[in-house]
Amino acid sequence: MYLILEEISAFWSKFQIGITNIPIAIGLTLMIYPPLAKVHYKGLPAIFNNIKILMLSLIQKWITRPVSIFLLGS
C-alpha cells in the first residue's frame, strides 16, 4: 500500500511549478469562473455611484460574515 501511495505522490509532484500545484490551480480557476460569468459588468458603475449600497455590501462581506462564522465555529 505504501508503494502505491509513494508512486501517486511522485506522479502528482511532476505537475508542480515551485510550490504551485498546477492541477489544483486549474481546478480552482474552473470553480471560480461560473460566478464571475454571471456578473453584469455594465451595472458596476451604478453600484460605485451609490456609496450606501457599496458600504453595506463591504460591511456584510468583511465584518458581519467573518464574525458570525467565527462565533458559529467556536
Task: Supply database-style keywords.
77% helix, two-stranded antiparallel sheet, 2 strands, 74 residues, mainly alpha, 2 domains
Describe it for me?
There is one protein chain. This protein has about 70 residues and is mainly alpha-helical. It has 2 domains: about 40 residues, no CATH class; about 35 residues. Helices cover about 75% and strands about 5% of the residues. It contains 4 helices and 2 strands; from the N terminus they run αββααα. The chain has a two-stranded antiparallel sheet. The two termini are about 40 Å apart. The model has no long low-confidence stretch (mean pLDDT about 90).
The oligomeric state of the chains shown is: single chain
Unreliable spans are: none
Percentage of residues assigned to helices: over 70%
Main pleated sheet: 2 strands, antiparallel
Radius of gyration: 21 Å
Return the structural class: mainly alpha
Tell the overall outline: elongated
Instruction: Write down the secondary-structure element order.
Output: HEEHHH
Keywords: Cell membrane, Membrane, Transmembrane, Transmembrane helix, Transport
Subcellular location: Cell membrane
GO molecular function: antimonite transmembrane transporter activity; antiporter activity; arsenite transmembrane transporter activity
Pfam family, one: SBF
